[in-house]
Amino acid sequence: xxxxxxxxxxxxxxxxxxxxxxxxxxxxxxxxxxxxxxxxxxxxxxxxxxxxxxxxxxxxxxxxxxxxxxxxxxxxxxxxxxxxxxxxxxxxxxxxxxxxxxxxxxxxxxxxxxxxxxxxxxxxxxxxxxxxxxxxxxxxxxxxxxxxxxxxxxxxxxxxxxxxxxxxxxxxxxxxxxxxxxxxxxxxxxxxxxxxxxxxxxxxxxxxxxxxxxxxxxxxxxxxxxxxxxxxxxxxxxxxxxxxxxxxxxxxxxxxxxxxxxxxxxxxxxxxxxxxxxxxxxxxxxxxxxxxxxxxxxxxxxxxxxxxxxxxxxxxxxxxxxxxxxxxxxxxxxxxxxxxxxxxxxxxxxxxxxxxxxxxxxxxxxxxxxxxxxxxxxxxxxxxxxxxxxxxxxxxxxxxxxxxxxxxxxxxxxxxxxxxxxxxxxxxxxxxxxx
Length: 435
Description:
Layout: E1 4-9, H1 14-18, E2 25-29, H2 37-43, E3 48-54, E4 61-67, E5 76-78, H3 116-122, E6 125-126, H4 133-142, E7 147-150, H5 156-163, H6 171-180, E8 185-191, H7 199-209, E9 215-222, H8 240-261, E10 266-268, H9 270-275, H10 298-309, E11 316-324, H11 328-340, E12 344-352, H12 369-375, E13 384-388, H13 405-412, E14 416-419, H14 423-433
Parallel strand pairs: 6-7, 7-8, 8-9, 9-10, 11-12, 11-13, 13-14
Antiparallel strand pairs: 1-2, 1-5, 2-3, 3-4
């Protein structure tokens, strides 16, 4: 029977009370072997469970009988968070950004995952091409929800071509099975001019709307095109005009969906509005910001949260806010408002040109440490540099090019503060630094 190494015990948890320690091994739950994290989460959700644990010191095995509330966690973390190998993507998508990565980045960035378990646990988008119909039944049985699905198009023939996978055309069939099992889904469309836009986009959203409310939203993001596309499929970037056309199209779709479903259903990422030099939608039109991590309404929410949490004459210091070109104008207007309410505060905004990926990449989340180092001049006049947390690997201080905060701080001789792209928390950090 397979066993799983425990690497961490949560403080004040059930596991800590039982005396389970890091280094021990989980063997089974309720006498059942464990395949992956889904089995673990499902089996430990019961109110009465039995854990078979092997002590890492003497190899003795002990059964721990546990009575708990339904939603109480045991408090175990494992060497492999999935308790299984992540599924590698079997597609060769024409727009895949991993194929556009140069050498010298974090090693994990070159792994193409397409794992429904990561969608459930971390919000990753999956294509479902490597999920069998038997595995779909398991997702329904364990109620793995929500799942984020990369759809791109509902046209079977076109989807096969876009994903370069002859098994990619049954996406709607698979989503119908999940919908019948009451699995909540969020869909994503990477939009490519001349390929899956215009009438194809209309059809895709109409087809997905047939699965509402199980499909609760559709995020539309523009294709990302780096300068490292030698030998790859020819893609065209969005222009000011084509971005505006997409905005008009989605506004018409949203109007129809509001009447039909009571929701706007489909939402464009911020890049479309910035590229078209078009006003951002109002706060309420994002309907709770369901797909915020996909850049859907991030700027509007950040701005509104700061306005609602604004402090007056509590902030002081001199800072440099580093961002990508996409958010430069927007951030300058925002910090001007903060500074207006805090007379002893100074914040300059510096937009970093993306030399690493190419100038067509303008989002802050794809800025590398080396580009920051190359483009910043004397920063000694500032108390600190403020870098948005989207530039870093989740829960770590590492940039895309594998350099950490300490290394860049040493090179530019400046203090660096990682700040959240969340208005209230951003102001709280500024207030802490002002004390």
